[in-house]
Design brief:
Layout (H helix, E strand, L loop, with lengths): L7 H13 L4 H4 L2 E9 L11 E4 L1 H14 E13 L5 E12 L5 E13 L2 E9 L1 H8 L5
Parallel strand pairs: 1-6
Antiparallel strand pairs: 1-2, 3-4, 4-5, 5-6
Length: about 140
């Protein structure tokens, strides 16, 4: 990225690079202090979000769990869409992850919505099939 303020697309690309290279330090400075990450779909089927991470520390802790719990994080077939105002990026991709310790494959379909303001990420929505994750993690369904 240049010295100028990064675009929303550059921020999204850096976010996913941090996950795939398992180097969360790449995204740290681009997360707003009040960033929120929401995982809306839950294994219960209820409308309440599965998880909500509020503030930079919580979001970074969540991202660290991904790179700790998965020895491979790959988002294949990335398809980016940007809103007309240039502040929001959507990414659709196929997740191809490997669980650390068990080497179990974890494949899911993702849609991320990343909202930016003043060169920082302020909100992330992470949509994926919660049943696929629940089966991997041994969580109850319903």
């Amino acid at each position: 990225m240049s010295n100028d303020r990064p675009t929303a697309t550059q921020l999204a690309e850096t976010f996913f690079e941090a996950l795939e290279t398992r180097d969360i330090s790449l995204i740290d400075r681009y997360l707003a202090d009040d960033v929120v990450e929401v995982i809306p779909y839950s294994n219960t089927g209820k409308p309440e979000p599965f998880y909500v991470f509020t503030g930079k520390a919580e979001v970074l802790d969540y991202l660290r769990t991904i790179v700790t719990n998965f020895s491979r994080v790959l988002l294949a077939g990335k398809r980016y869409s940007v809103t007309d105002d240039g502040n929001t990026v959507f990414l659709q991709a196929e997740g191809d992850l490997v669980q650390a310790g068990t080497d179990a494959a974890y494949r899911n379909v993702y849609v991320f919505k990343i909202e930016t303001r003043d060169g920082q990420i302020v909100h992330i929505d992470e949509y994926a099939n919660p049943i696929t994750y629940a089966l991997l993690a041994g969580l109850p369904l319903g």
